[in-house]
Amino acid sequence: MRIGIDMLAVQSPGSRGRGVGRYGVNLVSAMMARDDAHEYVLYAHDGYPIESIPVSPKATLSFLRPELEWGESKLRDAIERVARTNPHDLDALLVLNPFELCAWYDPPAKPLNGLATAAVIYDLIPFLFQETYLADPQNAAWFYRRLKTIRNYDALLTISGATRADCLRLLDLPTSQVVTIGGASDGTFFTPDRSFPMSAKTRATLHAFGIRGSYVFCLAGLDDRKNLRGLMDAFRHLPTSVRRSHQLVVTCYLNEEAERRTRQLAEDWGLAENLILTGEVSDEALRVLYQRCAAFAFPSLYEGLGLPLLEAMHCGATVIAGNNSSQIEVVGDAGLIANASDPSDIAAKLCLALECPQTARMLGNRAIERAGRFTWDRTAEQTLGTLQRLVKPSVLARRRAAPKPYLAVVSPWPPKGSGIADYAARLVGELKHAYEIDLYHEPGYVPEMSLKCAGFACHDVRLFRRNASLRPYRGVLYQMGNSYYHGFLYEMMAQYPGIVTLHDFNLAAFQFWRAHQGGVPIDNFRFEIEHNYPDRIGEIVGQLWDWTKERGGLQEACARRGLHLNRRVFEWSEAVVVHSPWCLEQVQETYPHLAAKTAVAPMGVTMCSVSREHRAEVRKRFGLPLDALVFASYGILSQGKMNVEAIEAFGALVDDYPLALLIFVGQDWENGEAKSKVEALGLESRVRFLGRQSDTDFQALIAVADVGIALRRPPTYGETSAALLDLLAHGVPTVITDVATFSSYPSTVVRKVRWPDEGIEGLARVLRNLAGDPHGREALGRAASDYVSAHHAWTKSAEKYIEVIEQCHLQRIRNKSLAG
Question: In terms of C-beta distances under 8 Å and separation of at least 24 residues, what long-range contacts does 148-152 make, across chains too?
Answer without folding.
Answer: 149/98, 149/106, 149/107, 149/108, 149/109, 149/110, 150/95, 150/98, 150/107, 150/119, 150/121, 152/109, 152/110
